[in-house]
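[Discussion] Sanity-checking designs against the backbone

I'm trying to build intuition for which residues belong where. Below is a structure token string of 156 positions. I'd appreciate it if someone posts a full sequence so I can compare it with mine line by line.
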């Protein structure tokens, strides 16, 4: 109740609903799917910095699934994004090949300074691990399950 004693109706805080999408495992489907996800209510109000961070991490993760998990065949990729307490909790599930060694790559950058000695790839996992938190990978039966969260801010 306000200090002047008048009763003022408070507007309930709107709870943001999770975003779930099923994407085909092609580069074109990933591109379209990312555009559609970032036009949804949950993601459209992110600040530019938060949007950029989430976009980089999601694009890298989804492109890795297409290039590696579904290298020899096609399939579906399930993406679920749940907002909570200033974070987006992301879960990506696919039926593709398991990650080598049963774990997500470490994402360490090469220490070489010679351009011709730089490895092909590897920068994506560095970005994913640098820009996200609490990344976990598990093989659940025939499915890959990757989960992580990203701290975000929303426009007022």
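Best answer:
Here's mine. Compare freely.
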């Amino acid at each position: 109740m306000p200090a002047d004693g008048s009763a003022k109706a408070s507007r309930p805080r709107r709870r943001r609903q999770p975003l779930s999408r099923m994407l085909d495992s092609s580069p074109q489907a990933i591109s379209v799917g990312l555009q559609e996800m970032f036009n949804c209510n949950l993601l459209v109000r992110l600040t530019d910095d938060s949007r950029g961070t989430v976009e980089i991490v999601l694009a890298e993760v989804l492109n890795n699934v297409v290039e590696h998990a579904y290298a020899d065949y096609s399939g579906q990729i399930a993406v679920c994004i749940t907002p909570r307490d200033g974070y987006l909790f992301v879960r990506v599930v696919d039926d593709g090949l398991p990650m080598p060694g049963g774990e997500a790559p470490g994402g360490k950058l090469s220490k070489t300074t010679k351009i011709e000695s730089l490895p092909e790839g590897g920068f994506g996992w560095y970005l994913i691990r640098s820009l996200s938190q609490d990344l976990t990978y598990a093989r659940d039966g025939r499915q890959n399950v990757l989960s992580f969260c990203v701290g975000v801010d929303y426009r007022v």
